[in-house]
Amino acid sequence: MATTTHREYIWELPVRITHWVNALSILTLSVTGFYIGAPFLGIPAGDDVLPMAMMRFIHFVAGYIFTASVLFRVYWWFVGNQYARLNQFIPTTWGRVQNTVQCALFYGFMEDEIPHSPGHTGMAGLSYIVVFMLFLFEVASGFALLHMANGGGIIYAIGGGWMLDILSAGTIRMLHHVFMWCIWIFVIIHVYISWHNDIIERNGLISSIFSGYKFFGDHH
């Protein structure tokens, strides 16, 4: 049986851009957030720039960029191609439910093969929904802390200031920190599984997040 390979355009440019913007934003926000919470670098103060002020400025700029990227990716759930849509993240068809179950069995060492999915597998889709909920909480809690620090502001109030009516500032700050760790746990697992699946399926999964294309074999 001969096998030929064809490539298929899976990840649209907006998906790829938001993926890398999110990744760089998370890295920047984590480093600067750690510093804001517990200064750990012996950065000398300049004549006109204090280290904490610089770190806070970078954190806020990265936070605004991250917010825009996350919201745009949510918008793309409804206008993107079939691999970017919301139904790839929340299983709404029997086929996606089966794919999700088979993925769970594979990662639980109860199936020998991972189910075929040109885009996201069912398990991957569900995990991304969870991590997007974490993203949205980080955005809202960040705006809540800004609302408190700046003594108000309509944008901060809409963005997350309303959380102060539900949770204490200390609880919001703690969850903001804890959920950052949850996101990094996801990042580590995400990178490992991406490499793992790329090696098994040999479909260019890693390169696809740069090019948009994955490769599939045709048997004939």
Describe this structure in words.
The protein has 220 residues and is mostly helical. It is 65% helix and 6% strand. It has 7 helices and 2 strands. Helix 4 runs antiparallel to helix 6. 20% of the residues are buried. The model has no long low-confidence stretch (mean pLDDT 89).
Give the CA-CA distance, first to last residue: 6 Å
Q: Give the helix proportion (percent range).
A: 55-70%
- Helix-strand pattern, N to C? EHHHHHHHE
| Extended strand count | 2
Average residue pLDDT: 89
Protein topology:
Elements: E1 3-9, H1 13-37, H2 51-79, H3 94-107, H4 122-149, H5 154-159, H6 169-201, H7 205-211, E2 213-219
Helix pairs in contact: 1-2, 2-4, 3-4, 4-6
Question: How would you sum up this structure in a few lines?
Answer:
This protein has 220 residues and is mainly alpha-helical. The protein contains 7 helices and 2 strands.
Give the tags.
single chain; 220 residues; mainly alpha; Fumarate Reductase Cytochrome B subunit; 2 strands
